[in-house]
Amino acid sequence: MADKIIMKGEFFIPEKPDNLLFGRLMIYDTGRMAVVLDKVLHNDYDIRGIDIINGQSHVDGELFSLVNCFYSHSSNNEYYYIVNELYKGSWIDTAFSSEYTKVTASITGLSLWLDERSHDTEYKDGHSIITVYPPKDFTFSIDESTDLILYFESLSHWTREELKIVSETYFAIQSKGLLSRKVLFQHMVTFRNFLSLFLREVPNIKTITFRKTVSEKHEYIELHLRVGKPQEIINPTDRLIRIGEMSASLRDMLPEWYSQASYFDEIVALLIASRETELAEASFLEAAKALELIHKYFLLKDDVSLRAQIQKIMSDNGIGQTGTGKKWTQRMVYTHLWEKVKNIPYFSKNFTNPYSFVEALNETRNYYTHYGKKSSNVWTPNKLAYKTMAIRLMAKALILVCLKCPPQIIDKIINAAGAMLYLQLDYESNPYSIYSIVGSDS
Questions:
Q1: Could you report the per-residue pLDDT of 53-74, keeping only the tens digit for each?
Q2: Residue 92 carries which DSSP code?
Q3: CATH classification (class only), 4-88
Q4: In the chain, domain spans
């Protein structure tokens, strides 16, 4: 059982502030949150879902709001709800009204991507001269009325006879008009997904602060996401590229990313789920689905000549064909995706037999979806973890292609991401693999 923090208090919904509910909020170290309420809720409100539940702690009187709560189960006249968002420091009346202009958030991995120096040290006449660099910010337009701003700050203070210097990085979404908390929150998640393209580890948002209007002072509200207490990403090997190496391209990439945010967010969510899923078959299917959505949202065209071109490539390279060619088949989709990345040096070098890879990808996808007759091309569960990493690399490259990222930058990112992945190695001949240990395909 995961450790948890239990906060007992009184709860109410904004529509009925005088009708108090009693219960407890539970925050697990995994980041999962749940609120347990007494039977009063069942008598008065739909137990299946609540947009907002406001609360006050019995211990210290702290105010907080639970947003987007869904019914889980009941036990002993208590009703359990899954909590998706927790705001502390203030009560919320609605999560959907347009009354905010800015949201600021800290996120893991941003400092690694920015890679800014906090200070410099010079030794002169037996003394150390320390220069603390001034703060920096980088502003990018994501649409006509909204900016993304990245901040780097160096904070210094004396402790006894020691000078301590701490660097902080955070980002903000700044709007010229009023936006709802929901829209700003989604903008943040969209940036988190964008940042994940340039890091080996998945970045996670740590804290969030909203500003209501430019004239009012900040309303400090801390948001605890389901990631729990995320570890900072500090290992330089987890950085695939520095922002300085691609800053010119970002001016065009970010508006494109945000203009297609609903599509990109869905695809990146699948890639993150594929990383975090322990079951090899499920991880593979999520990565394969991400590939298919890239084709559906960005490359799919009802173009007879394009389909004919892809079919010829398949025929020339021994890929089996089904259908009449009047519609896109799964084999055609995977072949088309490969054609989009084949000239990136990493793939042309490491995918030594790409069309066999495409054929095996198709047959493996069909097998683990329907569990029919198993061909010799189907990747065994022991191979899947290895092959799925290759598919995620391919998906990341395709996303960057769709963003019109320069090929040399794509190759640098994919080379760094795939530094430990070499497709020409025989995975099942590795004496340390599960396959060799158990001696079977199981």
A1: 999 999 999 999 888 787 777 7
A2: -
A3: mainly beta
A4: 4-88, 98-244, 260-438
